[in-house]
Amino acid sequence: xxxxxxxxxxxxxxxxxxxxxxxxxxxxxxxxxxxxxxxxxxxxxxxxxxxxxxxxxxxxxxxxxxxxxxxxxxxxxxxxxxxxxxxxxxxxxxxxxxxxxxxxxxxxxxxxxxxxxxxxxxxxxxxxxxxxxxxxxxxxxxxxxxxxxxxxxxxxxxxxxxxxxxxxxxxxxxxxxxxxxxxxxxxxxxxxxxxxxxxxxxxxxxxxxxxxxxxxxxxxxxxxxxxxxxxxxxxxxxxxxxxxxxxxxxxxxxxxxxxxxxxxxxxxxxxxxxxxxxxxxxxxxxxxxxxxxxxxxxxxxxxxxxxxxxxxxxxxxxxxxxxxxxxxxxxxxxxxxxxxxxxxxxxxxxxxxxxxxxxxxxxxxxxxxxxxxxxxxxxxxxxxxxxxxxxxxxxxxxxxxxxxxxxxxxxxxxxxxxxxxxxxxxxxxxxxxxxxxxxxxxxxxxxxxxxxxxxxxxxxxxxxxxxxxxxxxxxxxxxxxxxxxxxxxxxxxx
Length: 494
Hints:
The protein is α+β, with helices and mostly antiparallel strands.
């Protein structure tokens, strides 16, 4: 970069009073909500929070965007998010979210999937610059060279950790103080095209194409990245008037138009036909069709999250896509469209390119599945689904999709389930031993005492069951327990 170009760049990034540059790296000493609040701007959405403990990914919960500023003033919350903690770049909303469970007190239940995105706050690329031999400062310089050449607009935000996040903040053209609403679906399609364009421009400096979906997360500034041992820093560039860079969606589209690629719209597969035999269960017919519809949607979502199928998964992805199309009895036009969709963005090494003819050949050689097809774990292992991808592909508790086995921690063996009769006999034997032990110590057993000893042994039981067991083993409670009055107004003694 020449001195003249560097001077022009500083003029764009500094305020009118050039003696006070705004390009300053901030490295908070504890988790900070400045960057999340800068992006979400107090909307009515919910920001998902996550963390990584060892190799385990934990979805902690969500917080209203309007409450982000005071989030880390709570010492318990700040301590919980001290290291390897993440926040969602885009806010979510879904009805019935209160039915789930959270893992941290003060948070709402977790909610993070592509279907629940309400506000799109930004476009961004995750630069794993260490994979291409660049440190954080080298990656930032490479981004600014792209800005200087006109390939990228000036970024609104940098977050620096082991790699570099480059973010362009979005606002609504009619309401500049708000992020962009994700409704209608065409807005998300336009945003996805922009994400892929940014990733393509930055591909030579280590852009990660797997963050092109709207449910992605990034590290919380001020938290510790255990891989580098340093706290996450951030920088907020500003224009010559001291205002942060912010863009409407059509402004970014105009700027990135040379790099935008047409995206094939998802075409709905034909609705299930009525069974020829009226005795067939209509519900069962829809059941297996729905399973394959879910498989078709998951394959498309996984492809979009990865920015296209990579080498090693290309043929497997085409095989499962072909099997899905066979099961749904799609016509030739639908087959060509869906397979062309899976070929888009696919990694194509020189001398080993897969074309639509290759995909059609795979489809023709694939037999129609006559049973339920492969289970989800088989597909996850074949496509090497990570834990984070699994969380996004699992739309709800009824349709879970597991990660590949190599990403799953060793699980404890499943304990054998006891019948009700065996469980009662074991509990009574434990009650007998407890009563004998208390009697030998000169203590008359009571219902609460025995119940407490059972709980200490890991055998939970209701008070009524404990009292009945004590009577059964010949050691009734020394205390009189009165139940609620029954219809005749009398009380029952145990």
